[in-house]
Amino acid sequence: MATESSEGEEEGKMIGGNQHLVVDDDLREMAKKAAWSVSSCKAGNGVLLLRDDNLDTYWQSDGAQPHLVNIQFLKKVKLQLVVIYVDFKLDESYTPSKISIRAGDGFHNLKEIKTVELVKPTGWVYISLSGNDPRETFVNTFMLQIAILSNHLNGRDTHVRQIKVYGPPPNPIPRQPFQFTSREFITYSSVR
Amino acid sequence: MEAILVDSVLGSLRHFLHRNAIFICERLCAEFPSETNLQLLASCYLHNNQAYAAYYILKGTQMAQSRYLFAISCFQMDLLTEAEAALCPVNEPGAEIPNGAAGHYLLGLIYRYTDRKKSAIHHFKQAFSLDPLLWAAYEELCLLGAAEEATAVFGEAAALCIQKQHLHHGLASQNLQTSIEDRNLVSGRNLSSEDVSPRQLKHMHANNLREIPGNYHGAAMSGATASQSLNSGPSSTGFYNTPSPMVAQLSGVAPPPLCRNVQQNGLNPSTVGNDSSPRSTVNPTIQAPRRKFVDEGKLRKISGRLFSDSGPRRSTRLAGEAGANTNPSGTAVVGNGTIHSSKYLGGAKSGSAAFRSVTVRKGQTLANESFDEGTRQEVFDDSRSYISAATSTSTSTSGDPKSLEQDEATMTIGGVITSTSKIINGAAEVLNLLRTLGEGYRLSCMYRCQDALDVYMKLPHKHYNTGWVLSQVGKAYFELVDYLGADRAFSSARQASPYSLEGMDIYSTVLYHLREDMKLSYLAQELISTDRLAPQSWCAMGNCYSLQKDHETALKNFQRAVQLNSRFAYAHTLCGHEYVALEYFENGIKSYQSALRIDDRHYNSWYGLGMICLRQEKFEFAEHHFRMAFQINPRSSVILCYLGTALHALKRTGEALYMMEKAILADKKNPLPMYEKANILLGLENFDEALEVLEELKEYAPRESSVYALMGKIYKRRNMYDKAMLHFGIALDLKPSAADVATIKAAIEKLHVPDEIEDNL
């Protein structure tokens, strides 16, 4: 299982998984308007099931590894968190084990930004995209690709039940360089 | 038998026993089938909220009243085309619209809801000219932006109209009034001390005589004159020595003479009013406290009791409804009244003053009745503020002191002239009141809010402290972006009439802006428990959730409000706001457009559309929408600011700066235009000016992180790294949002690196 190396990003082993999806209030699901696509899928287990908010349905791949989930946004967005629901107890050998997250402008210049290794996860797995630098809290990108490099027990195909992508909320006032914090500004900033 | 049945039905309706009425009426129709009886049955059903039943009964009928009732049922069932056909038959273009003013009003509403604005305006104007007390028609005209000045509209012609309407009512009703007034005269006698000298009264009469001919001229005295006359104060009998100025007052011009007039014992504005009446539309809405008579309280109580009988009857008459309930006892007084009035001409007594004031109060009461039945008692008790001048000459016929001592029954100041002038006075008083309210409403619909507030201030406390007026005041403050003032006004409105829902949706928005989630949730709960089926309650609830950032639930609540009343424009607008917050822009656009279809003067929707276009970077459209909003409400600094932003995005920086200047002038307290101005100047590379503006802005909003961040950015561009560092640091200290933290920190890191092309910096 060769891992693609990246400059400075480490691998991490993640154990377990949360039963509940708990996300900070100041994060927003970003991928509602994005274009989702997968490298391959079995009939009846397509890409829609990744986004149907139903943990019983899953996407099942049907091809060679690495299995890819591509998310293309309408414009460059800031992303902070990727959350994946996988369940070893139900999926066993279909459960992903090594996941690589890549970002870029399109298929031609994706660059890996994060790699994680899961160990028997059951539930929501949080993968933060932030770097160590405060400057790198967000990843500013047109496209995100989640590559499943390998599965548990050397399974070929993979099951993923749900994926969510989070980022900071947009400025409620468009065309402003910064967001307003004080009451006076906020009161006058909109008509209701 | 027919008469008995009809009586029974009418009685049941009067007592709100609708089911009984329906039953008896069905028997009536079975026994004596006639269209009139059918109409009665239909109106029973309408009273019982069964418009569909009335619809089926009246379908195809041709009599005017039937057509009108049929139109009402269609309207309630939302069958606008049929309603229109009924009121205005296609194959009879010359047919008269049934029920005059009411018919025109209904037709106007139909046209308004089917987007035929011009016809709607035409019909509302007709309705209004036929019945000047049809406030609803004037309201609609204001909402459509086509209302004329209240002084013109509630002026002479209107006075004449009301007079004509009510002169038709039998003497009996007049006599009723006169008998009451006589009784008041008696009670007036009790007023001691500040009695006017007989001499004064004599003058009064002299003037009265002169004025009787002047009765029919009607006049619109400006509110200014009225306010003058409110200076109730003691002494000064100068007024009586100068009949001529009083005549001059008839033209409704000279405030000074009025003032003088006011300064008398006991007479006060009421006297003044007398002189200037009937032309005097000396505003009853003046608020100066009247001189307190020693026995004023007593008088009021007596008059209160007396009025409670006459009040509703008179008010119904004034409201132009048919079927005055004439008081049988009134008739007895008729003859006597006429006789007495002539006798009184010579006399002089303070009683007359009190009498006048009493009449005035009555007039006011009536005016009140039209608006708020419930406050009748208050009116009686608070007559103090009602220094309406419009008491007519003859009514104020100063009673002969001796005659005052006579028995009530004999002391009827009846007679045609008296009652006529009474009506004239009453009409004038009512019109005064309506004029102020109408002007205030018109101004607030045109978003000239400061003027509207000034006009509303002229109302007497009695009227000012009613739910309707206070919510209008609250709305005016809201449009001025003075949310604290609005909060105060609305909470007084809630206290004045806790069950009124009018304007509570705006109140909830005010609380939303003030971020008072406790008060807002309390308001929402109260409203829902008051009326679960009112759109305003659900709007308040939705605002509550929106404040908590739970936009999905807020949206559901607003959609419920829409379902309850799809013609409630604000609910649509709020839905639009929530869609935008959830980033469902297409639905947002749809919602805003529905709101605009209902009321295209709803500038919030135009603003919402503009914001969506800004976000989607369709700047031309954004500018267009903001401009539409600006045309409707040219005083809103927020709209001006966004218009400027759109222009800046279109690279029309000159115009953008101009807009920002206007916005800054429009509202000194709005920090946004200055910030935007600095932004624009930065774009123009005019760093020094930008910094100046931002320095000033720091005074206004010292804890706003974006100000410092922008300053840091500018210093960075000027290569003044220390200052840049300082400002970025302060910006970070003020806890900006996470995204901004990242941006600012990145900027700090790159401080000594020449500017790269980045998204934000």
From TrEMBL, chain A:
It comes from the Eukaryota. The keyword Cell division applies. GO terms for cellular component: anaphase-promoting complex. Component of the anaphase promoting complex/cyclosome (APC/C), a cell cycle-regulated E3 ubiquitin-protein ligase complex that controls progression through mitosis and the G1 phase of the cell cycle. This is Anaphase-promoting complex subunit 10. Gene3D superfamilies: Galactose-binding domain-like (2.60.120.260). GO terms for biological process: anaphase-promoting complex-dependent catabolic process; cell division; protein K11-linked ubiquitination. Residues 6-192 form the DOC domain. Keywords: Cell cycle, Cell division, Mitosis, Ubl conjugation pathway. It holds the Pfam family ANAPC10. Belongs to the APC10 family. InterPro entries: APC10/Doc1, APC_su10/DOC_dom, Galactose-bd-like_sf.
TrEMBL record, chain B:
The keyword Nucleus applies. GO terms for cellular component: anaphase-promoting complex; cytoplasm. InterPro entries: TPR-like_helical_dom_sf (IPR011990), TPR_rpt (IPR019734). It comes from the Eukaryota. TPR repeats lie at residues 101-134, 535-568, 603-636, 705-738. It is found in: Nucleus. GO terms for biological process: anaphase-promoting complex-dependent catabolic process; cell division; metaphase/anaphase transition of mitotic cell cycle; protein ubiquitination. SMART domains: TPR. Residues 265-286 have a biased composition (Polar residues). The keyword Repeat applies. Residues 265-290, 305-329 are annotated as: Disordered. PROSITE patterns: TPR. Belongs to the APC3/CDC27 family. This is Cdc27B. It comes from Vitis rotundifolia (Muscadine grape). The lineage of its organism: Eukaryota, Viridiplantae, Streptophyta, Embryophyta, Tracheophyta.
